[in-house]
Design brief:
It is a single chain. The protein has helices spanning 6-32, 99-117; strands at 46-47, 53-54, 57-58, 64-70, 76-77, 81-96, 129-141, 148-163. The strands form two sheets. Strands 1, 4, 5, 6, 7 and 8 form a six-stranded mixed β-sheet that branches. The longest helix has 27 residues, at 6-32. The protein is α+β, with helices and mostly antiparallel strands. It starts with 5 loop residues before the first helix and ends with a strand.
């Protein structure tokens, strides 16, 4: 038996988001058809760790998506099966000069993340279930540039279930 661990889950989430995000962004831009246009998230702007803040500024290419592992509820272990629960934050980050525009964009990126990950069997090769568990938004001003820096995070509970023998 080999457990599907957090690394495989994060890798599967990044792969799914990278594969589906371009089409989802195009669909949302067509649906809204307004001045708040989502841009593609570069493949290098999907992070599985918290990016470093240097001299008070977040020095990464934005928009970006950051996946963060959080402590989760205990799973279940019995002689035939092991069930593990993981809690992962999928955080969309956007920077810009117009606070209202930045808010709209980060909300839409978060919607895209939710619609991609909430699809039935989105992470089927790796996970048994992927459940939306809540969200949170933060706003700050970059002290170096004066730009607005907003994030909108969705929390996901991932469950894996595997035979022990």
């Amino acid at each position: 038996m080999g457990l599907v661990g957090i690394e495989a889950i994060i890798d599967a989430m990044i792969a799914k988001l990278q594969a589906d995000m371009p089409a989802k962004i195009a669909a949302l831009n067509a649906e809204y058809d307004d001045a708040y246009v989502l841009t593609e998230i570069p493949a290098t702007s999907y992070y599985w760790y918290v990016p470093k803040v240097q001299q008070g500024a977040l020095n990464i290419e934005l928009p970006a998506i950051v996946l963060i592992n959080r402590p989760a509820a205990p799973g279940d272990l019995n002689p035939a099966q092991i069930e593990m629960h993981y809690s992962i934050v999928a955080d969309a980050l956007v920077r810009g000069e117009d606070g209202a525009a930045v808010s709209r964009l980060v909300w839409r990126y978060n919607r895209a993340i939710k619609e991609i990950l909430a699809q039935r069997h989105a992470l089927a090769a790796t996970c048994t279930t992927c459940t939306f568990a809540g969200e949170q938004q933060h706003e700050t001003t970059d002290p170096m540039s004066g730009d607005f820096l907003h994030d909108f995070a969705s929390l996901w509970t991932i469950m894996t279930s595997e035979a022990t023998s």
